[in-house]
Amino acid sequence: MRRILEILGSSLSLTWHEFKSHKVRTLLSLSGVAFGIFCIIGVLTMVDSLSKAVQNDIKALGSNTIYIDKWEYSGGPDYPWWKYVNRPTPKYEEMVLVKQKVASAKSIAINTQISDKIEYDDNILNNVQYYGVTEEYNQIQTIDISYGRYLQQSDFDQGANAVVIGNELAETLFGKADKAIGSLITMKGGKKGAIVGVIKKQGTSILGGFDYDKSVIIPYGFMKTLVRIENAGPSIMVKGKDEIPMAQLKDELLAAMRSIRKLKPTQDDDFSLNDIDSFSEFMDNIFGYINKGGWAIAILSLVVGMFGVANIMFVTVKERTSQIGLKKAIGAKKGMILTEFLLESSFLCIMGGLLGLLGVFLLTLLAGAVVSFPIVISTSILILAVSICIIVGVLAGIIPASIAANMDPVVAIRSK
Which domain holds residue 258? Predict the structure, then answer.
């Protein structure tokens, strides 16, 4: 152990001496490694942070949940909207029948959405999202209340004008969120809504899903007094039981909806079953392709950097030929010489990697001020960066180190 520590100390000292003696040469040679690490860690960090944020947003849509809608939740330039536009919208009565027919369902709710203004005194807020929901909505969506309460069964039974308001709206209208409780706001069509609760601050959704900070949640019955339900984009949300596979839930829903709508075997479905878990897997595949692209760019940079480090090591071996001969003459083994130069090349690559990591850290600070999700360099990514540096260092130094280890001590000493 003592001998290993001596070799490590000697290699680190020689590496630092090499850096101080030839700063420009070393920095230029290490730039490839630094850029490669910057590409790999930068891409992995951004993709990992974005992936976590997106997956959190997807989970907010409801894990183990299927949305019954007239629209297919996909996109792209080839989206066949004309196939879906004339489909019938899901109805409250269909939700009730689905609840009766589908044994695999744990919670079922209908969700409707419109965008309109709300008013309080002289304050007017436009483009506020209204969610008109049924009783089991909060069993599918996570809605934490910071002040007041959530909608009660009596609110749903009576179609009451009870309103749960988003944190940002409450602070904008009342200064402090807790002051909103008990106040009356003017909603679409001049209808009054009584605020019974304020939703805990959640932050912006990347996917543009449920942004509760800027929304109000009202009973489905109250929504019917504000707008024609067909114009509020109704969808039926079905959360499956924990032990039930999504495929089984989807099959049961398919059979139930075809039965409810009395579709013949030869008729196409006039509804879509949108599986949130499948969407999550789709997004994982996209991020996987982005990661592969980052790796491809980084590998090219690392190859260039590896040749730069190898060049330094060849020069270093040539400059220390007499020293190598002297060490071998007094008993140094091949393995010791080999280890010493491999450690030195690894340390050089780690120095380049640190430069790359410094660039990534600066990138996270700049990007963090622009994007709406947290950017974090995880411990596993840092370990990967160090591992890559060591591997590149060993590959870059293996040939020069082998040349040094196999030198004839007499010839090496005379070379001076």
Answer: 88-270
